[in-house]
Amino acid sequence: MRPLTKILAPMVALLAAGGAALPAHAGSEPAQAALAESKGEIPPKYNAIQNRFFLKEKRFELSPIAGYVPNNPFAVRYVGGVLAAYHFSENLAAEGAFVYSPDLGTSDLKGLTHTLVGIATQEGSAEGVEFQQPVEKMILGATFAARWAPVYGKINLIGERVLNFDFYGVAGLGLLTVQEYYAKYDESVTPNPTRLDESVLKTKVPLNLGVGFDFFLSSSVALKIDARNYLYIDSKPQYDPEVPVEESRLYNNFIASVGVAIFMPKMKTRQYDF
């Protein structure tokens, strides 16, 4: 029987020869590029999450939305509008937004407005003080902004389907029209003794800041959840008609909305190098 070393020697030599041949195969262009990317020598060609279900680059987006202004304590403000955007890349887009909120007069006043007017009038009636509650209603808004989507991810829905989404931020400027009223007590008005006087339509230049999510349902449709602030400077509320107010403060119309985003044209088939 031959010694064990004599049996294993040819096998070791064969393995050594095979190992020497590996660098030649690994030297192919795709393998070299992958190795260089892993070492950080060249920037990665694709995003960190591979096989994106949905691509936005060089596509237009049109998004009808419906929303609500929850931070107006004196008037109910329902909002409808449309967001339009062009995506320069998967992360950066230019956006234009138009929103409208109908003015229903005293019909959309909240109970707090009626309560404050009634209480202030009863307490001040003995002294002959006339109280007025300023009420501002956002009517129209048109803004232009940049949209940045730094976060892209996937959600596994109960193990049945993977839902793709991205998170974005919005910043820009625009125009905002606000209808300003003064709510006053009027016992002749029923069922709520409140009337609106001295309507003034004001135009402001707001700073538009917001965030949102897109949940991609198909290659052309996404569910959009959006929240944005319209910030502007205006005079402080004037509660006494005889005492003008000269100081200013920051106002914010916060809009929370949902919508459907439609992307055009049809998404191109993604190409891979290997």
What this model shows, in words?
With 274 residues, the chain is an alpha+beta fold. It folds into two domains: 1-45, no CATH class; 58-264, Porin (Beta Barrel). Helices cover 17% and strands 48% of the residues. It has three helices and nine strands; from the N terminus they run ααβββαββββββ. It has helices at 4-26, 29-38, 111-124, and strands at 59-68, 78-87, 92-100, 133-157, 161-185, 194-204, 207-216, 221-235, 248-264. Strands 1-2-3-4-5-7-8-9 form an eight-stranded antiparallel barrel. A hairpin with a 3-residue loop joins strand 4 and strand 5 (161-185). The protein starts with a helix and ends in a 10-residue tail after the last strand. Mean pLDDT is 82; it is low at 18-27.
Concise account of the structure shown:
Helices cover 17% and strands 48% of the residues. The chain is of the alpha+beta class and 274 residues long.
CATH architecture of the largest domain: Beta Barrel
CATH class call of the largest domain: Mainly Beta
Low-confidence stretches: 18-27
Q: What structural class do you assign from the helix and strand content?
A: alpha+beta
